Amino acid sequence: MINVVRSLIFYAGYFLAMLMIGVLFLPIAPFLPLSGRYRLLNLYNYFLMVWFRIACGVRYDIQGRENLPTGPCVIQANHQCEWETVFLQVMKPPVCTVLKRELLRLPIFGWGLRLLRPISLDRSKPARAMKQVLTQGVERLGTGLSVLIFPEGTRVDPGIRKRYNKSGSVVACRAGVPVLPVAHNAGERWPGRHWVKQPGVLRVRIGKPIETEGRMPDEVLADVEAWIEAQLQEISDVPRPTSR
Which UniProt keywords apply (predicted)? Predict the structure, then answer.
């Protein structure tokens, strides 16, 4: 019962903060340069990080911040829930996120996303989506933005393993930037398919950048998947399968 009450309190703050962002910041954001928009709208993500910890009794164990590169990179992480999409925005800003186009239609939240130049995909047209990721991903990296691509493509519950997509590794190899691997167990604290949050330790591991210069995307992807899965074996409370 206590987790239900905590979750209700959390969502009260979640939606109140979103409403305040929509009223106070969204009218200003379009008139700011892109870097200014990130700083302004990222305040919501910083708030959610703190509010989730306080309201839901979660403790963060984040290791590897010293591995963050100074220049742009392709960030690849396992995808379990909404929490990591928030954390990865504040981990190494500014970052361009590859996401499904439907998210841009959400009131307030989607309006803010549009201002941050994401790469929005129509998942009903996979060939076109792949071309879009490759073209716009390299372009965004060239402007100094990092690019966030979830190699699993969609949310995957803890304890389940899905095939990794190589689009992020292809973008990194074409742009000549490193891949930054990130592993976490956020779905155990913030279930992707249920609104009730769970207290406990939320663990994040940030790996050393994986170089792409002179390498093939398949080789880079193999390194990314091996590192993320090895970390998940260590930090997950839900047992990991040994293969896909």
Answer: Acyltransferase, Membrane, Transferase, Transmembrane, Transmembrane helix
